[in-house]
Amino acid sequence: MKKIWQTFCGYIWWTYPRGSLHYDVMVTLILAFIFLTPIWVNFKDKPTERAPHPSGGVILVSSEKDGFVYQIDAAAVPGKDINAELLRVIEPIAGEVEISRFEKVFDHGKLVAYKVWVQRH
To answer: Which of the residues 18, 29, 42, 112 has an alpha carbon 20 to 30 A from that of 36?
Structure first.
């Protein structure tokens, strides 16, 4: 009984030297678990799905000595609080910034973009 307990503890604490029979058995068991576990066994380890960031319509127009000028597609700014929405789009790209001003860009009377001047803290 003591021999069985020592063998079991050796498997638990992984004390067998590499290349020994018991080491090979442990590796075989691990590989069998990896490759033979049925697909229906759910370990709930899937990555969380995130909505894509609406940064596809962001262009760095120019870099000035005291900040940057970005042009942001109007479709990326759906909310009524334009300043907060512009920050939400710019900060993942530019880091922590402060908006000094912004202008609406129109094409044939239709709002198409915002030109935003930002400064880093």
So the answer is: 18
